[in-house]
Write a structure and sequence with these properties.
Layout: E1 3-10, E2 16-23, E3 30-33, E4 36-40, H1 41-48, H2 52-61, E5 71-73, H3 76-86, E6 108-110
Antiparallel strand pairs: 1-2, 3-4, 4-6, 5-6
Helix pairs in contact: 1-2
Length: 112
Amino acid sequence: MAQKDTEIIVKSDAEVTIVETVQPKIENLIYVIRGKQVMIDSDLAMLYQVETSALNRAVKRNIKRFPEDFQFQLTEEEYDFLRCQIGISKANTENKADGRGGRRYLPYVFTE
């Protein structure tokens, strides 16, 4: 369940705007896969406020800077199991130009 943070913005003495943002708890984004605590690339990208593909490209570009077991790609079986556990499903394709939705590749997970 997501945690709501409330931010109060005072524009002037007479005008106050209350903005609620939904922030997931980091503990809820950590899974145990292959005996390691990991975060899925899309969740990590959300926390850093970047696209998942940009995160994965940046890691691949700088892979020598990270330990060998820093990142690994899930198998199809692991991904199917994870989808069942946390309710990941294919995205709505009504407004998608290519008619797809969802992921095209198996996700990467990060250990640190």
